[in-house]
Amino acid sequence: MDYKLEMSPAEMRELGYRVVDLIADHFAQLPDKPVGAKGDPALLRPAFLAAPPAQPVPSGEILRRLEADVFSHILNIGHPRFFAFVPGPSNFVSAMADALASGFNVFNGSWLGGSAAAAVELAVIDWFRTWCGFPEEAGGLFVSGGSMANLTALVVARHTRLDDRTAGATIYYSDQTHSSIDRALRVIGFMPDQIRRIPSDDEFRLPLDALAARVAEDRAAGLRPFAVIANAGTTNTGAIDPLAEIAGFCEAEELWMHIDGAYGAAAVISDRGRRLLRGIDLADSLSFDPHKWLFQPIECGCVLLRDAQLLKKTYRIMPEYLADVHRNVAEVNPCDYGIQLTRGFRALKVWMSVQAFGMDAFRAAVERGFVLAEIAERKLRDMANWELVTPAQMGIVCFRRREAGEKFYPRLHDAMLRDGFALATSTVLNGKTALRLCTINPRTTEDDIENTLDWLDALSEPRP
Ligand SMILES: Cc1ncc(COP(=O)(O)O)c(C=O)c1O
Predict the structure, then answer these.
(1) How far apart are CA 459 and CA 219, in angstroms?
(2) For residues 162, 168, 173 and 179, what is the CA-based torsion angle, rounded to 10 degrees?
(3) Same fold for the domain at 100-357 and the one at 360-459?
(4) How far does residue 146's CA lie from ligand 1's centre (Å)?
(5) pLDDT in tens, 223-269
């Protein structure tokens, strides 16, 4: 028994090399593997229910078991033919960065606990700030993902604009807005009758006239409109709300403007993305998810505030046991800017992968996402059995099987999973189900797109 939970350097190396081999093989072999598998709960849950072993299990056996029972029953969201939800293409360098952050168990909560980690985080946040065109005084921090970024920002909005008193306050966003916004508002005490989900226009964007009318109506009723949430790439169709126009309206009406760019904001690094996201620099707060279109492994989200001090005003609490942390004002403590005290070194993976590949590669990788969706759109226009629902937009294209009823889609989904060649998922647009391809994986080839659409066609005949 080793009560110190230690391994010899040789044992650590042996385990480490095997783990690296597994990960390297995973990346190398992914295109030839199934897109993933969903386990049957009746079989999979009992498979892991055994009591924890009192004695050590040899590491080779543990890894074999992981390969056989765990990694074979997940969706490979980095697979080049994984087009479902929002793919997570990730990259090997960032996976190694996660191993390093965990191996050194870097504490990224305070300057004292991990000064260089805080410095790296500040530097990477400054890259994001610059890419998004935010002013010098802007700043932010890494969080687990888009949901936490939205929550973190909305707490700042509530604190700054409402002094945390939500009675009578109202908030506005389109019906295409991600559910994490609804959840964040629930967490921070908003009732459904304070939330205005405004029907989107023909292009699934927030219509400014309807927004203005609703705000005016609420003001006339004695309510307190306080914030608008705009989308920089909706999950459903990639639609971008008219950001600059909404920003102008928010300024005139003294409303907080939050942009949910969890899906799309990373596209600002490309020329095309920057043009499409005009006005992103005008937000009071912005969610930005490197674990989506910036190719980082989960978990890696980010929140940016136009005025970083507002994060500090909202979150900083100085208990007696952190007196040594707070003594020096020149030191930046990430824990003062968000919800977590103990937090991992998420910035490392962005930093290390940008060093390893260079920004030109990242820009080209983002551009590829746009192009692949356009290839899919062109092919779909030539396919007799399918109709386009929304054109390629921010790496997303939506389409529908002609003359198929609503039961067609769940059956097609099951057939896709059974086959494993590729995966697309459905959504509902204007009350009708549509399939959706999200093409942000830069390792997806043109053949992958062509073959996936032909395969979908074949899988649909006779109707699955
Ligand atoms: C537009 C948008 N906002 C928020 C989220 C939530 O992000 P996360 O899943 O990282 O919490 C998503 C996830 O897909 C998204 O697409």
Answers:
(1) 53
(2) 90
(3) no
(4) 5
(5) 999 999 999 999 999 999 999 999 999 999 999 999 999 999 999 99
Query: Quick one: how far is CA 359 from the chain centroid?
Result: 20
| Any ligand 1 atom below 6 A from CB of 235 | yes
Strand 386-393 relative to strand 396-401, pairing: antiparallel
| Residue % of the chain over a pLDDT of 90 | 97
In the chain, where the domains are located: 100-357, 360-459
Query: Which numbered atom of ligand 1 lies nearest the CA of 298?
Result: 10
Architecture of domain 100-357: 3-Layer(aba) Sandwich (3.40)
Task: From 82, 83, 86, 438, give the residue whose CB has the most ligand 1 atoms within 8 Å, as the site to mutate.
Answer: 86
For the whole model, what pTM was predicted?
0.98
Q: Per-residue pLDDT tens for 156-180?
A: 999 999 999 999 999 999 999 999 9
CB 356 within 8 A of CB 349: no
Residue 260 beta carbon below 6 angstroms from any ligand 1 atom: yes
CATH entry 3.90.1150.170 includes domain 360-459: yes
326 CB within 6 A, ligand 1: no
Tokens matching residue 196: 């205005």
Q: Which atom of ligand 1 is nearest to the CA of 264?
A: 1
Which tokens is 202 given? 């023909």
The Å distance, Cα 402 to ligand 1 centre, comes to: 30
H or E element at residue 427 = strand 425-429
